[in-house]
Amino acid sequence: MIANVSQSTSTHPSWTSQAVQPPSLSAIDLEALRRELPVTRRKHAAGQYLYRSGQPFRAIHLVHVGSYKICDTSTDGREKVTAFKMRGELAGVESIGLDAYACDVIALEDSEAWDLPYPAVMKAAVRIPELQEQIHTALAAEIRCDRTWMLLLGTLAAEPRVAAFLIDIAARHARLGYSAKHFILRMSRLDMASFLALKHETVSRALSHLADLRFIEVQRREVRVLDVDGLRAMACCAQAA
Amino acid sequence: MIANVSQSTSTHPSWTSQAVQPPSLSAIDLEALRRELPVTRRKHAAGQYLYRSGQPFRAIHLVHVGSYKICDTSTDGREKVTAFKMRGELAGVESIGLDAYACDVIALEDSEAWDLPYPAVMKAAVRIPELQEQIHTALAAEIRCDRTWMLLLGTLAAEPRVAAFLIDIAARHARLGYSAKHFILRMSRLDMASFLALKHETVSRALSHLADLRFIEVQRREVRVLDVDGLRAMACCAQAA
DNA sequence: CGGCTGCTTGAATACCTTCAATTCATGTGG
DNA sequence: CCACATGAATTGAAGGTATTCAAGCAGCCG
């Protein structure tokens, strides 16, 4: 059995290098932000909405505790999880320039987000060019992150796709100072499958096979990484069918 | 045979509503931009690079004539076309905040782009809050466009995917005042396939079948749309396998 | 004209999905 | 406190869709 999920600082430096860069504002800026902006904090239980498609867009949101999933819906009702957001990452930036939010954001666990009123952000940005720069950078990073996943989903078969997902989650945990070798997946297999453009049975099978290969140990949502290089080799080399 | 590719203004208003919104700066801003910025114009023949991954990032680029493809490459060499850019659309925004461009951009035909030096853009943005707003909006629109395609590629089977692509291209043509019912695809089947996460044979078969259904006429890169609603029904309703 | 590249089409295969059954964890009510 | 209902995850077998491999055709440029 797998136990003792630690939050110890990762000692493996290479984790950070391979990650799909998650867009975020650094801790330094946050201090400035809190001074400059009327930040309000909101807590959400698992399953609760941070915002819903169609609600008036007024703020962007910085995840402070927990994690959220971003869900896009087409006009005819097809849905897909297009991103997961963890501490330090931004939600809502995709809706800038619109009157209403363009997607749903749902907490995966007990979570907290800081609302940054968009007009206030804009006003602050005029006064603080560095903030301006940071916003551009965050938005651009978001685009690069999406493009990286488009590339991944478009060129990798199911199993390497799942491997790449685990590597990404692990790297993001490491960035936050948590263990990259042992973590809890906060999303269901269904959410993972949606994000990876697979069926949940396929995700399940892929995880089982990665465990058979001794690359990971997995028990429901608890994952222990046994062979990072094995995972990497699978995520990088295997082609799509 | 299909002939007489016109550039007449589209008279079908519904074309514009369904499109995957392409990020762009409106014509109004362009006038301001030209006054404020040291814009330089560059021409490219088909196959030439607007910029390459690794080159120092200095400017964002507004497509003024022709069209380009955006190609992302993974560390291990897998490649994918992640976007196509037409007149009025921006390239290079994904590289904001980096020292070097993050992807390749290649002309699909004789094309011209305006280089907007990024530092100058930033300085102008400080003086002109509207420009600031426009930049945010353009970046956010880019994110939404990517998300929409992630959703499409993740939830639609091959044939509806191709149908959705044709609808998108048609809508973007309409927006530019060209015919939405008759146009030339500027990219190869290989590029389309890469963008749609399919093989070029599959794209070819899908196009042939759409022609069998009398939704379109197609001859190599020349496409004539016969039944928009048929295409729409296919793009919206059919689920992924 | 010849060689080349891009596109199309066919047949066989492989991979993921679909359908179905089982196990496991959780929480609710008797 | 246990029984039971519920939802999530796993696993097996059958099937379908896109891919792979292969061949042929058409346009284009030297």
UniProtKB/TrEMBL annotation, chains A, B:
In this protein, which residues make up the domain named HTH crp-type? 156-229
Q: Where is this region: Disordered?
A: 1-20
Q: Which InterPro entries match?
A: cNMP-bd_dom, cNMP-bd_dom_sf, Env_Response_Regulators, HTH_CRP, RmlC-like_jellyroll, WH-like_DNA-bd_sf, WH_DNA-bd_sf
**Alphabetical keyword list:** Activator, Allosteric enzyme, c-di-GMP, DNA-binding, Repressor, Transcription, Transcription regulation, Virulence
Gene3D superfamilies named in the record: Jelly Rolls, Winged helix-like DNA-binding domain superfamily/Winged helix DNA-binding domain
Entry's Pfam families?
cNMP_binding (PF00027), HTH_Crp_2 (PF13545)
Matching entries from PROSITE patterns are given as: HTH_CRP_2 (PS51063)
Q: Which domain of life is it from?
A: Bacteria
Places the protein is found:
Cytoplasm
UniProt KW Disulfide bond keyword: no
What is said about its interaction partners and assembly?
Answer: Homodimer.
Q: Which PANTHER family match?
A: CRP FAMILY TRANSCRIPTIONAL REGULATORY PROTEIN (PTHR24567), FUMARATE AND NITRATE REDUCTION REGULATORY PROTEIN (PTHR24567:SF75)
Query: By what name is this protein known?
Result: CRP-like protein Clp
